[in-house]
Specification:
By secondary structure, this protein is mainly β. The chain is about 0% helix and about 55% strand. The protein is built from no helices and 14 strands. The strands form 4 sheets. A 4-stranded antiparallel β-sheet has the order 4-5-6-7, with no helix packed on it. Strands 8-9-10-11 form a 4-stranded antiparallel β-sheet, with no helix packed on it. Strands 1-2-3 form a 3-stranded antiparallel β-sheet, with no helix packed on it. The protein is globular, with a radius of gyration of 16 Å.
């Protein structure tokens, strides 16, 4: 199998292959993406991308905020999942029902988009003033990559400013 690595600042994705050999190889898989890739999810026929935004400059500032889209492995066709502009997106997870969760580090939000929907909804939002608090409202502060434990119905959110991981239950 292959692994994919995003280079957000260069708006590129690398493919790493040959893990069964003594010398795995890294090659540029795609470059020059308008929406800079950040979070990646390797789906069956496509790579799903949570974008930080377009035209990234110093300090991770962008011209336009990112969205979620996919690129097919074979023909590299692009398909929007959650249309930009949404936020500076980071983590990305797919749920068993086909819906998506994604996090926005700068905007302190956790989003959900149902399969086949065009619009995402905010699942959790925090205020940076709550970063020293232990309340659940601070759960999305500085959230980067996220994890999903569907067997336990938990979303795992790392809170970088709080140096902790919070588990959010869902139904």
């Amino acid at each position: 199998g292959n692994a994919y690595v995003s280079d957000t600042m260069q708006s590129a994705i690398y493919q790493v292959s040959g893990f069964a050999t003594a010398h795995p190889q890294s090659t540029v898989w795609i470059t020059g993406l308008e929406q800079a890739p950040n979070g990646l999810y390797a789906d069956k026929d496509r790579l799903v991308i949570a974008s930080w935004g377009s035209q990234i400059a110093d300090g991770f500032k962008v011209k336009d905020l990112g969205g979620v889209y996919s690129i097919g492995y074979k023909n590299k066709d692009r398909q929007d999942i959650a249309v930009a502009p949404i936020a500076n997106l980071d983590g990305l997870e797919r749920m068993k029902d086909g819906s998506w969760l994604f996090s926005a580090k700068i905007q302190d939000r956790l989003y959900h988009i149902a399969q086949g929907q065009a619009d995402s909804r905010v699942l959790r939002q925090s205020d940076r003033k709550l970063t020293s608090s232990n309340t659940s409202e601070a759960v999305a502060v500085d959230a980067a990559d996220i994890g999903l434990m569907e067997s336990h119905k938990l979303i795992l959110v790392p809170n970088m400013l709080k140096n902790q991981v919070t588990a959010i239950g869902y139904h």
